[in-house]
Amino acid sequence: MNALIPQPAELVEKRQEAEGIYTLRVRLAAEETRRAYRFLPGQFNMLYAFGAGDVPMSIVSDPEDGEVIGHTLRAVGPVTKALATLKEGEVLGLRGPFGSSWPLEEAKGRDVLIVTGGLGCAPTLGALHYLFRRREDYSAIKIVHGVKAPKDLILHRQFEEWRRAPNTEVHLTADQSGGRWKHKVGLVPHLLAEVAFDPAKTLVMMCGPEVMMRLAIKQLIYKGLAAERIYLSLERNMKCALGFCGHCQFGPQFICKDGPVLRYDRIHGIFNLKEV
Amino acid sequence: MAFLVERPGLEGIFQRLRGLGYELVGPTVREGAIVYDSIRGAADLPAGWTDVQEGGNYRLKRRDDDALFGYAVGPHSWKKFLHPPRRRLWQASREGGGFEIRPEPESGRRYAFVGVRACELKAIAIQDRVFLEGQYPDPSYRGLREGAFLIGLNCGQAGGTCFCVSMDAGPALKSGFDLGLTEVLAEGRHYFVVEVGSEAGAEVLGAVSHREASVEEVAAAQGVVAATAGQMGRAMDTAGIKELFYKNYEHGRWDEVADRCLACANCTMVCPTCFCTTVEDVTDLKGEHSERWQSWDSCFTLDFSYTHGAGPQRASTRSRYRQWLSHKLATWIDQFGSSGCVGCGRCITWCPVGIDLTEEVAALRKPSP
């Protein structure tokens, strides 16, 4: 199969999560392609809207969900807007899956700390679903999630459900207060200072604005976490997802194939530099 | 074993290749420069021409002989044939409720490249690693690459911006060619010493008049390429070059070079190894038919690193120049196991302001200003 060619996929379900944010569940049209399709949480697809182009989109569904593949996106550019206007039953294109995945094997038996900001939670959603479905394989799960404003919080019900799960903590914060926000107010790195975790037992999966991640990592390392136990998912401009177009380079890494999930100790030298 | 083909015999090689269905492309004079384009035969080669190259400067000049290859490399490289500047990847048409995508068929073009220098063979080998050795080989590149016949050339003339010796890329041919030529003009004679690099090469040579080269002729050919090695206009110290870049992301020289750099992307267009592309989807007015076109792109554009939310990762010219040079000389080594530079000097010659990467590397070795 030529990996540059989008494969037709039917939009099976479209759900609006918040203003401008949608979860699209799609099913590859060709049986052969559908059966051959395997992914791991943390990987992404290139989603194509007819005539508009394609964009990298992380997969939020579970590998065992069968034939339906979920993506949560914010309609901001021409392609995501075109994808968001599709109706159920309509067809889009899909190439993938591409890239590296979350260390879900390595995390077995450990505490997992998920740190996310804004829609940065999308790449970790797949990991969360995966962890909760195999809850007995993992020790404590702690979720630290920040949004700019209360209205940006999506998946309220999901967070509350996780909060009630055994051996699980959910810490939510917004940069500014408003409405009936009953969670913390402040930045994710500050909230992390208050969250107790055992640095020897914990593995971190992180995604969000890079400035947030830099400060959060600083806090985690200050609290004794080893750099090789921190994994982060990065986003870069991407045209091909195959390592040809060159757009997603981050120092020696191609985010499309070496990433999007990278271990912090392998990139710490450049992650703290500007404009790499 | 080396063979000898007299100057008029060269045409026989070209016509044999055309007869075998190859599209002959080679150096020819066009708009004041020696470019690579379709040629009909030896008559289209730049006989008697040479070039004078310096930072930001390229001029053609008459030679005092009729050498066919008596110049250095021009603005074109063979990548324009193997990795075309613009190509259609696929077409899509609305069908029923969905759409159907038809991949672009392979062109099936078989090129014979005339006069591929050692630095250019190395550049092709570098692009081979990019396009063929990853998880997703590029079928278009593979088809064109496998179909190509390469007439290599031991360089008889280095340019003012050449430094292939520093990059261990030339001027002598090592491997990767079908036929390897050395042009010799001496003692009133004009001939080519020919090495055979493949079975296809042997077959083509077999079809034209040739004989075994004499010891003297072989020595004369070796003298030509040895003299070229001594003509390098530039040099670059590559010792520990990867670490040099990794240690100097914040060197003050990046600000200095950014003051001169126009971010015009010329260096990336003329570079024989730069491979970056973008894609554009073009749709007809009825919205029924759409095509995806791939074209060369450059890390010097602002759009190149743009993402929604974060904006361009590399907003400053400083960061874009740093990205280009660091990729070429350092991160490339981690990505593909070799430098991305072959020392051809094109980026120096075709930079409108004459920014010279050999000078930039030397400056990075000095303390930050």
What does this structure look like?
The complex is a heterodimer of chains A (276) and B (369). Chain A is α/β, with parallel strands linked by helices. Chain A is built from 7 helices and 15 strands. Chain A has helices at 31-36, 78-85, 121-133, 156-164, 188-194, 210-222, 264-271; strands spanning 7-18, 21-28, 44-49, 53-58, 68-74, 91-98, 111-117, 141-147, 168-174, 184-185, 202-207, 230-233, 249-250, 253-254, 261-263. A 7-stranded mixed sheet of chain A has the order 10-9-8-7-11-12-15, with helices on both faces. In chain A, strands 4-3-6-1-2-5 form a 6-stranded antiparallel sheet. A two-stranded antiparallel sheet of chain A has the order 13-14. In chain A, helix 5 (188-194) runs parallel beside helix 6 (210-222). With 369 residues, chain B is α+β, with helices and mostly antiparallel strands. Chain B folds into 2 domains: 2-91 and 106-229, no CATH class; 241-275 and 299-364, no CATH class. Helices cover 31% and strands 26% of the residues of chain B. The mean pLDDT of chain B is 97. Chains A and B meet through loops of A and strand 6, strand 7, strand 13, strand 15 and helix 10 of B.
List descriptors.
heterodimer, A: 276 residues, alpha/beta, Elongation Factor Tu (Ef-tu), domain 3, Rossmann fold, six-stranded antiparallel sheet, 15 strands, globular, B: 369 residues, alpha+beta, 2 domains, eight-stranded mixed sheet, 12 helices
Task: Assign an overall shape of chain B.
Answer: globular
The number of domains of chain B is 2
Ends distance of chain A: 33 Å
Low-confidence stretches of chain A: none
Could you say which structural class the secondary elements and strand pairing of chain B correspond to?
alpha+beta
User: Care to count the β-strands of chain A?
Assistant: 15
Strand content of chain A: 25-35%
| SS content category of chain A | alpha/beta
| Oligomerization status of the protein chains | heterodimer
**What value does the Rg of chain A take, in angstroms?**
18 Å
Write the CATH homologous superfamily of the largest domain in chain A.
Nucleotide-binding domain of ferredoxin-NADP reductase (FNR) module
Report the mean per-residue pLDDT of chain A as an integer: 95
Q: Strands of the largest sheet of chain A, in order across it?
A: 10-9-8-7-11-12-15
Described by strand count, sense and barrel closure, the largest sheet of chain B is: 8 strands, mixed
Task: Specify the helix fraction band of chain B.
Answer: 25-40%
Work out the helix count of chain A: 7
CATH fold annotation of the largest domain in chain A:
Rossmann fold
**Low-pLDDT segments, ≥5 res of chain B:** none
